[in-house]
Predict the structure of Alpha/beta fold hydrolase.
Amino acid sequence: MSILRLEVSNPKFTPDNTQIVTIHSSHLNRRHDVSYYNTHARGNDLPIIVLLHGVYGNHWVWLNLGGVDLAYKKVKAEFGIQDFILVMPSDGGLFDGSGYLPTHNHGDYESWIVDDVIEASIQTLEQVTEQSRVYISGLSMGGYGALRLGAKYPDKFSAISAHSSITELADLKYFVDTDLTAYQCTNNDESNLLYWMEKHQTKLPPLRLDCGLDDELYQSNLKLIDKMNAAKISHQFEVFEGGHSWEYWHVHVQKTFRFFNEIESRY
């Protein structure tokens, strides 16, 4: 077991319908945090949506910069989607962003998400079990993480959605000054999205992406889509007005909720 300890917030003193957990992870050899939303939802084996943040952020940004709780409530009121638990982890706190990668020298930020965060959700929330389906999404660096982890571990995730995604490590240059060699992994193909998509092409879960026309990552997204089309990787790609901003993500994460609900309704 990679979780050494859990510290769970007291619902009496936590903002309504939320929970905060600190996980001491052996994958990282330190403590990091996860925020949950919709913890009042009732049911058995409720599905979870893992939402990965971008550079500079932490577990709280989806709620406190992006108003994801309001976005979720809006979709639920308008479209009657079923209950999901929103799971919003720290990226692990490396540099200005970990990339959610299993770095060679700094820690396994991949296993932090796919092992610790999911297991802690099962241990913490009575509505979440081993039978709960897991969906993954993210923005910017988190979009890259969602695409890569979803493609690398297709049996763990029921669908993937990504917003304004970094599509290769080189895209980090738009946001951070860290030398990209610091993200070196044991496997030279580790950071390559298309490598994992092609490797697991027959098992990939449903996948969607979107990006704003004014986003600095728009051209990078188009290049990835061209490669995915050439490799015949099944996906949906949408383009909207807007840039690399929380205003954009607050609106379009609502499409993620509807997309995941459509898939969940098939079960």
